[in-house]
Amino acid sequence: MMQGNNHPKGKLILRTLAMPADTNPDGDIFGGWIMAQMDIAGGIMAREKTCSRIVTVAVESITFIKPVHVGDVVCCYGEVVKIGTTSITINLEVWVKPSLNRPSREELKFQVTKAAFTYVAVDHSGRKQVIQRDCVC
Ligand SMILES: CC(C)(COP(=O)(O)OP(=O)(O)OC[C@H]1O[C@@H](n2cnc3c(N)ncnc32)[C@H](O)[C@@H]1OP(=O)(O)O)[C@@H](O)C(=O)NCCC(=O)NCCS
User: Fold this and answer.
1) Most CB atoms within 10 A, among 18, 84, 107, 118?
2) Which residue CA neighbors atom 34 of ligand 1 most closely?
3) Which residues line ligand 1 (CB under 6 A)?
4) How confident is the model at residue 106 (pLDDT cuts 50, 70, 90)?
5) By alpha-carbon position, which residue is closest to atom 46 of ligand 1?
6) For the CA atoms of the chain, what is the radius of gyration?
7) pLDDT for residue 101
8) Burial class (CB in 10 A: 0-12, 13-18, 19+), 95
């Protein structure tokens, strides 16, 4: 089994709570819900870094390390790893603070998922556009 490090890499972008509506029939949180949270978090960071409308173009190396349970606090951390001409790639890590209802809570916080999300800066017609580096918005 792949194991995360002891500390999240990058900046905390998003925190939310895993709710019963986000589970599969076995009571674990859907991977797709976690991916959506990561896409939102990466999108926030990509917008801040590019000062542009952005679209997700690719998701690479997504790894679900541990399950997420209802009541866990889900925290998405992001780190820009590449800025190209029109694209920006962000490594995202998801960590959880386990629910108080979990039977064993040895770890106060642990990594559950990681992936690299790539976004492309686009204009209002959806055409790619060059990223303005060092923009402030
Ligand atoms: C994103 C989009 C505008 C790119 O248009 P395009 O003219 O085909 O662009 P290109 O193939 O030249 O790629 C643009 C950039 O994305 C990068 N890119 C494209 N495919 C990639 C992939 N699979 N992985 C990583 N980077 C990728 C390219 O390397 C390029 O980066 P650079 O300019 O920094 O060098 C277009 O593909 C699109 O609109 N896709 C749908 C996006 C969307 O709707 N996302 C939401 C999910 S439903």
Assistant:
1) 18
2) 84
3) 55-58, 84-87, 118, 120, 122, 126, 128
4) confident
5) 56
6) 16
7) 83
8) buried
- Contact by Cβ (8 Å): 71, 103: no
The widest CA-to-CA distance across the chain, in whole angstroms, is 51
Task: Give CATH superfamily name and number for 11-122.
Answer: Hotdog Thioesterase (3.10.129.10)
Q: Which residues of 1-25 are buried (b: 16+ CB within 10 A; e: fewer)?
A: eeebeeebebeebbeeebeeebbee
Query: pLDDT tens across 55-73, in order?
Result: 999 999 999 999 999 999 9
For residue 87, give the ligand 1 atom closest to its CA. Answer: 34
DSSP 34-83: HHHHHHHHHHHHHHHHH-SEEEEEEEEEEEE-S--BTTPEEEEEEEEEEE
Q: How far is the CA of 116 from the centre of ligand 1 (A)?
A: 14
